[in-house]
Queue: 2 jobs
Job 1
Amino acid sequence: MRFIILFSIVLMSIVNVYGQNLSKLDEKNGFKNFKLGSLKSNYPNLVYYGFILSELDDNYSKEYDGYLDHSLKSYVKRNDDVKIGDIEISEPTYYFFNNKLLRIDFTLLNSNGKELLKLYTSLYGSPVVKKERNSLGAEITNYVWKGKRVNLIMTYCGKPFKSNTIYYKNGSPVDDTPKDGPKYTVRYVSLEGLAQKSGGTSADRAKLNQQRANDL
């Protein structure tokens, strides 16, 4: 009996600490000075980009990127030399839906990605790890922190796609192997924005489903 009680106390402590860690993610609610759910008009320095992550990208996840389509508008901040401390990252992409910031993406090279993964784990606790195969047939690993307001996802593909097609330039074959090797893709996603894109909040959907059920 003592063992069961002790185990329950330890388990409750672990759950409580994990929840507290994720509350920090919700409190931050974004990346740098960009807050998820905020209006596009708050960021006049953004430039329309038009890029939408697709299945042709090595780090595209069917589970976590499947909702992406051209109802989203993507923007970048030109000449934005962004770093996380000493960790270099790519120019972030900001996705807006109905003029509200839904998602923030950026990528990192392999070594920098490992360092950021350690940092996120120290801040938000151990992630849920999920593996899947991307549309190109390669295995990718998703590291996921699920808050109540924000999802944070890091995706890693250890074997970037190399085409079997041979490309030529000036009569010589060109090696299309990615020169910078494997990458991590990071996504901050607003759960409220995602619910709205999917057809309203959970309460809205529950009400709609009840109306449909009453009309059967």
Note: The radius of gyration is 20 Å.
Job 2
Amino acid sequence: MPIIPTTKTPNKNLNGGIENMKKTLGIALNIILYIFVYFASMFGSGLVLRIFTLPNPEFKSWVLNNQGILMAVTSLIAFIILSLIFMLKKKSLIAYCGFKGFSLKSLPLVVLTGIALGVFSICAVKTPFIANMCPALNETLKSITEGELVLIAILGPVILGSFIEEVLFRGALLNELAKGFKKVTAVILHGLLFTVIYGFMAGDLFVGAYAALGAVIFGLIYIWLDSIWAAIAAHVTSSMCLLILNRTNNPLSSGNGAAVVALISLLTLITALYFIKSISSNKAQNAGKSYTA
């Protein structure tokens, strides 16, 4: 009886499992790296300012009264480090993050989303329920845009701060999560990371939850419009709205009217996001029709 030769075939399941483990490990290490960049930038900016302000007490007092300068220096350091990391990986940070234009039709909706989020944030923290439950949140929102010089507050937290947060957390971190998860799942997971990071920094979980709200909203805009500029536009608009409302005695965010305005702005926010998603879906459908035509 002839002997039938047997050939050894590779275990595809085992190889696939190893590849998935490598991929997951790579994603986890990159996420840790990006978070490290953020904290290292904060430490580095504090160290730089401490060195420059030690010999000059007057300059130190000025810096303390204009915390926006700290955010500006942090943002610049973070962007430089992140750019160097991508250069070492032989990748383009600009291309990876999606620095490309988006539909002008969606621009008013993006701006409206930012305004609605800013108004909701200011008014929600003034409602008795949230004010009593989380007094630290109101102080956190004030600290974002306070300072003697409005120009520094605009340059630091509003422009540079918003820019680097979108590049680092949406452009780099969210994209990394999207390698292993569906996009919406990745947005939710990166929102949970925001809760931990900012909750740890502020020592208050509610502050972290608020940060996660913004992260999820900007993340959805990013993946739906496929452009980091759209997320930056929404973030800058929201931060600018916070600055204006924090520095003016506006009647909308005080008394019983705060809850009403918070509800209206929340509904506006949801509506704007719905139409942004609709634009994204229509664009995808049209692209599919063009491809099959």
Note: The chain has a mean pLDDT of 84.
